[in-house]
Known about the structure:
Blueprint: E1 7-10, E2 18-19, E3 22-23, H1 24-32, E4 42-51, H2 62-76, E5 81-88, H3 91-96, H4 99-119, E6 123-124, E7 131-136, H5 143-154, E8 164-170, H6 177-183, E9 193-195, E10 223-229, E11 240-244, E12 261-263
Parallel strand pairs: 1-4, 4-5, 5-7, 7-8, 8-9, 9-10
Antiparallel strand pairs: 1-11, 2-3, 5-12, 6-12, 10-11
Helix pairs in contact: 1-2, 4-5
Amino acid sequence: MGNGTFWGVDSVAYIDSSTSHGTLAHYVINYWFASPPPHDTIVYWGRYFAIASSIANPYHSDNEAVQLINEVKAYSGAARGWILPLCDPPTATVQSGSGSDGNYWGNLVCQNISYWLTNGPHTHMPGNQQIYTFLDIESTLSSAFWQGWAPAVFNYSYNGGLPYYEAAYMNPYTSGLCSFLASQTGSNTCYAIWSNQPENASNKCYSPGPGWGPSSCGSSPWLTTWQYSEAQNCPGAMVDLDQTNPNITGPFGFGFLDWMIYCA
C-alpha cells in the first residue's frame, strides 16, 4: 500500500445512532472491524449532507463528529477523523432532472456543509480550504442536472472563498458517464470520482481491505476513492467500506483526507 492509503466507511445512518454495541461509530470501528486482527484503521466516514427524504436524514449533529473522533482516538490515540460529504437527490431526479433541479441540490448540500463548518465545534475546513463534494450517481446522469449541480457547488461562497469542488460517486462502467464527466470544463468540471466498482470480489467484507484495484475513468476525472464493499453484501457490517487512492500524498501528508471535512 502507498502512503496515501486510508480506510473509511460510509452510511446513510447517523454516525451516533444506537446499536446493540453502543453508537454506530463504536460498533463499526471498535467492535465489528476490531477483531480478528489486524485491528481496523478506519479514520474517515462518508455522510450525506443532502439526501432524498425517502432514503434517510442528512448529517444532523456535532455528536456525529464527536463519536467518530472518540472511536478513532480509542484505538489510535489520535483525536481526529475526517468526513467525506455526499449529496444524494432522488435517483430519478439525477437521471432526468433539469438544471434548476441540479442548482437546488447543489446549493442545498453546500448550505448544509457550511452550516456545520460554522456551527459544529468539531467540524473544520481542511488546511487547503478545499472540500470535494460528491454527487451520488446510482445509474445514469442527466447532463442538464449535472450542469446545474456542478456550478452551484463550485460557485457557492463560504467565508469569503469558493471552497467546494464538484465530484461524482459512480460506476465507471455506466455507459457514457466517464466520457461525459471528462468532457466537462469550467464550473461544470468533475474534479474527482469515487468508484463503486468492483465490489465484494472474493467477499471483501473486512477493514483493512484489499489492495488498491478500483475501476476508473482513465486519467480523467481524478480517481480519489474506492467503495470496495457494500453493507448489503456483508451481513452485520451496517456500513459500506472504502479506501483512498494510495498514490495521493496530499498537501499535509494525509492523502485524499486532506480534501475532506476535518474533525477534531
